[in-house]
Structure formats: C-alpha cells, structure tokens
Amino acid sequence: MTDHRIREHPILTVDDRPAFDFLWAGRPLQGLEGETISSALFANGVRIFGHHHKDGAPQGIFCANGQCAQCSVVADGLPVKSCMVPVRPGMRVEPLDGKPVLPSVERGPRMRAIETEEVECLIVGGGPAGLTAAIELGKAGVRALVVDDKHRVGGKLVLQTHKFFGSIDACHAGTRGIDIATRLEHEVRQFENVRVWLNTTALAVFSDRKVGLLRDGHYSLVQPDVLMVATGAREKSLVFQGNSLPGVYGAGAFQTLVNRDLVRSSARLFIVGGGNVGLIAGYHALQAGIEVAGLCEALPECGGYKVHKDKLVRMGVPVYTSHTIVSANGQDEVESVTIAAIDEHWQPIAGTDKTFACDTVLVAVGLDPCDEFLRKAREFGLPVVAAGDAEEIAEASAAMFTGRIRGLEIARRLGRDVGEVPPEWHRTAEVLKARPGATITEDVPEAETGCFPVFHCSQEIPCNPCTSVCPHHAIRIEGDDIMGLPEFVGHECDACEKCVAICPGLALTLVDLRKDPEHPIVTIPYEFTKKSIAKGDVVTVLDTEGAMLGNVEVQRVRTDKYADRALLVRVKAPREIAKKIAGIRVQDPAVTQPAAYDAKPIADQDIVCRCERVTAAELRALIRSGIRDMNHLKAATRAGMGACGGKTCPNLVKRLFREEGIPAAQVTDLTQRPLVMEVPLGAFAGVVDGEGPVKDAPRKHAVDAHEGGM
Q1: Based on the number of CB atoms within 10 Å of its own CB, is 615 exposed (0-12), middle (13-18) or buried (19 or more)?
Q2: Buried-most residue among 86, 468, 608, 657 (CB within 10 A)?
Q3: Among candidates 85, 380, 64, 389, which has minimal Cα distance to 229?
C-alpha cells in the first residue's frame, strides 16, 4: 500500500520511530509508535473508516480533535474514536459498519473507589492560555492542576510551524508555535506546586461544584476552589452538497495530520474560508508537498491577516473572494470541488461555477468557543474564569497574554500577595486581540542606491519583530505603535538580512544595489526544503499580489539563526522589478486550473446533522409545521443526539430557522447535557481496565458515589 508519510519537511524534524504491524479489516498495515489509529490509517492510504448505519454513507475523519465521532472504528472489539486512541502492535481495527455490538464480558471487572482530588485551581486545557496561567500560578505558589486530553500540552501551538506575530517581549513574536509550546511546557514543569495530567478528559461540572475527569480510563473527581476554562475552540461546520464525504474536514484536523503526525493526508486540496486558519493551513500544505488548488472566501476580502493571504498567492495559490462552495463531488470520497461567485444576497450566480480536481476540501469558516464548562460552572456557582478562545476567539498570541492575566487574577483571588495586574498588560492583550486594521497601498521605496529593506506588509496588525533585530535601529514604527507599519529610517544598511529572516509574514525583502545597480541582489525568505532550491536555479518571482514579474537566477542560498530553519535566497533581478519582488512561486500553475464538471446542487438533501445523517429537508418540514424548539427537532429527527453531543449541528439548525424567517427569540435552544464527551459507563463505577490505580494524586479522600446532582 502507498506510503503517505512525510519523510522530509523544511521546519519539522522527522524522527525515526519504532514501526510495527496492526490489522485493518484483516489486512496487515504498518503503524508507528505514538501515533493515533486515524493517522496510521491515513498514512496507509485509508480514508474511509466505516459506513453510517442509517443510510450506508461512507464515514471518515472530520475534526481529529475528539469533538465528533465521524472517525469511529472498532479496535480490539470496542468502538473508539480513532483520532484519540493510539494504535498498538497487533491491534485489530475494523471499520465501523452499522451499529457497534457490545463486547461480551467473560469475567467481572476489577473495581476501585471513586476518589476526589482537592486543588486550589483546576485548569482545563493545556494550550497557550492554560500554560501561561499555570506559570503565573506557579510563581505565586498556588496549588494548581492542569489537565489536557492530548498526550502532550501546547494545544494548537504544537500544530503551528509558522512564526508568531506580536512583539518579542509580550508573546515570543518571531518564534514558531511549535517551539513556543516546548518553552511553555518546560517552564510549567519547573514548579512543584503545578501538576500536569495528560490524556485526561474533563467530562462535566456537577451541581456540587466538582469536576469529573477521565484519566487514562479511570474516573475521578476534582474539587477546585477556582476553575479556569482554557479549552480553546472548535471549528464551525458548513452545509453544502457532499459536505459529509470522506475528504471534507476541518483545517485543524488537517494540521493535526500533517504537522503533528507527519502524514501527507492529501495529494491536492481546496480550502473554504479565508480567515487565518484557512490561509495558514494552505501554506502548511505547500510546505508538506501537498498541492493547493485554491481558496474561496464569501466576503469581498479575506478576514485573516493580509500577509498570510499574500504569502499564499505569491506561492502560486489563487484566492477567490466573493465566492462560496457549491458542492464537494465524488462517489465515496472527494474527487473535486465546485465553487461559484455570489451576489449581494449571498446567492450563487448562475454561470460562474468553477470546478477543481482535488481529493480534500478543508472547511475553515470560523471557530466557536468551547465554553460548556464555563457556562455550567456559572450555573452551579463554582468560581470560574476563562481565557484564550474559550473566552474570546483571537490569535494564540492573545491567548498567551490573557492566560497570563487570568493566572495573576486567580492568584490574587486565592489570597496570594502578587499585586495588581499591570495596566499595560490589559492594553497589550487588547492590542493582540485586535482585528486587522487599515490596508494601505504598498509603499515602494524611492531609493535607487545602496542597500535597503522593502516592506511588503500593507495592513495594520500587531507585529514588530523587525524593529527589534536591526543592529542600527534603522527600522521603526511611527509612534512605537505595534499596530503601525514599519519603515526604514536609517541611512545605512549593511545587508545583515536579520529583518528578512525574522519577519513572521515573510513580507520583507532586501534590495542591494551597491555592486550592480542595473541588476541588484534581492534577498527573499523561503520556507521550503533545501533540496527544492539551489544556486544557479532559475525561479519565477512574483509581487505581493501574486502577479508574475519574471524569471531570475538564484545567486546564493543560506541559513540564518534569525530565520529559524528557513532559507534566505538571493537572486539577481533586473532593476525595474527588484523592489516589487515579494516571493518565489513554488507551485505549478497547472495545479490551479479549473476542470469541467456539471454541478447539480440539491440543497434539501444536504446533511445538517453528520452524526445522525439528518437532512435539511427533514428539518425544514418540521420547522414549517410550526416547531420552534430545537429539543423537539432532536426528539423527532435525532439531530443533535449523536456521538458529538450536539457540538456540530446546532448552529446549522439555527441557520435553517433564520432562512425560514423565524426570529431567534422564538427558537428554544438545545438543552445541554451534563457530559460533554462520551465515557464508558463502567468508569463511573470505578472499573479498572488493567492500568492500576491513578498515580500522582495526593490530598484525596475516597467516596463510594458522587454526592452531587447533574
């Protein structure tokens, strides 16, 4: 079977891990130590994990984050989420076709008492916000427990190979997310008063103010004085024809497969959504050797940072604004995607359809906070705060800073003498959470002699690393406002290239006219493998908007410590285009050419509830009959009753109400159940699965049953 593993990457280290055999539908496949079942299947070219019991529709991965159940399989006789369970040597994995059959029990299970852990602060989520809060609590001497459902902390930082924006002092600007995760984890683990539980799922907040946790298969309760919710966000879904085909999944799932698990999950993809998540995922795809056919965005302009969009287009990826997806096409898997331009009423315009060959459609249409614990804790009177995306959707740099603020606030609340939160912290947090500001016309320098940087960033965003590294202090932002645009104010530049190397948006080049004013040397940042470019190569250079400027020869390729695993490529270019050069095309234009396809969208058949395969037609009929209660819809159709626990479809059902002209005030929201994740019932009874008692859990007292209600 074809190997789909990434064997070389420009940023990530590809380690040799022990390999072993496991069985998929009776066939031997190869897995690697530490990878999940879903990643092992993708690495072996398997993308259909089973078929839905209702209509036989093929099922595959969707969120890769344990939030849904699209990737469920049967492993050694038990139905499991393949994205959350590690593959093991000799494991027998079968497709989940139809409803799972409960395993037979040959002997009574071992039992243990359910224990309660008391802590001053419980942090749910070990991402950027949770870790920075834990660091502040560690400094203050607070007894804190950080729980995370993954095998390592860092949250989405461990998927982010790009350099961060912001400032160097406030949020590690100019450093890659993967490295920030390592730094924060190392710092947290220096504090003896802060413990970290991995592979631990927070299940519910109960009315007696205890939090239920499932740690390595064992259920326990935690009684915190203060709960901090740093659970991040989940990706929004979208309804369109073919939206449930294997090959349609979230951009975050894609980054998990590619950047965490080093699996080349696709040969060619198309992206729906022009926010930062979608734009960055496209760039990550190119770095992994995956072709990107294009990206569509319904708004007239992409909502993400312009430097992210510009970076993508100058690599050769077209961006279609004021366009929407019409359909994902294919029999059992995605084979192509059709998009169309939309009018002022957001409706597809006839005759504007374009279809692109691809095997994957990445849906990146926004995020919703994972705030279930926050709302339940407030309902039951448990002191609670939130940080990061669970509080407000923003960039990870903002999450780190808000986590820091919340950590200090919690320490004060618990009686530690830590002083007030400095006012400048709040100001910095607001700046980092700010949406992109004004976009201006790119300012091309007038200089015709010497050496100077050219700034290809033309949108106000929080970013200033280039001002920090210039040895001559010749780059500044007017008024020292981090949201401003940089400018070269010096009279000399010795071509050290540090500013080019550190720029997170790859939006800075250096033009040197000193040796040959008619054919100056232009230094360009390049984050692809060393094998892909060499001295003497002829490359195609593009401007900020992706327009072709010409073909030039590479003079030198080098690395720099500020570039942090990226390359600095020097090319010799004609004088008339030198200042306009912003990047090097890395993708053949043929990849992005539309193909012929006759799209026949049938909206009523679009799947709204993925878990239970409920169509828009079924729900519309009930809404038109007078139903205004989402719980009634759930009882009648099972929409929201599936394994994801109603995390994916409620917003889509609300959209149907809006389309039918029903005011939101007339709609009764879906009742949230106490458990936000599936859990074996035996766990609540203290069933031990052979792992032994939970370790590292002092200050406990045993209880026979949970006293609180749900």
Answers
A1: buried
A2: 608
A3: 389
Of the two residues 105 and 240, the one the predictor is more confident about is: 240
Cα–Cα distance for residue pair 501/499, rounded to 1 Å: 5
pTM: 0.85
* 14-32 pLDDT per residue, tens: 888 899 999 999 999 999 9
Amino acid in the structure at residue 324: T
- Band of pLDDT at residue 42, cut at 50, 70 and 90: very high
| pLDDT tens-digit readout, 437-477 | 888 777 788 888 899 999 999 898 888 889 888 998 899 98
Indicate the SS3 state at residue 498.
Answer: helix
Assess contact for 69 and 642: CB atoms under 8 A: yes
What one-letter code names the amino acid at 589? P
Report the pLDDT value the prediction gives residue 700, as an integer from 0 to 100: 40
The strand pairing partners of 498, in sequence order, are: none
Best CA proximity match to 493, nearest among 469, 474, 520, 468? 474
Give me the domains of the chain, ranges plus CATH numbers. 19-101+237-363 (3.50.50.60), 113-233+369-433 (3.50.50.60), 451-585 (no CATH), 603-666 (1.10.10)
Beta-ladder partners of 147 = 124, 197
8 Å CB contact between 285 and 295: no
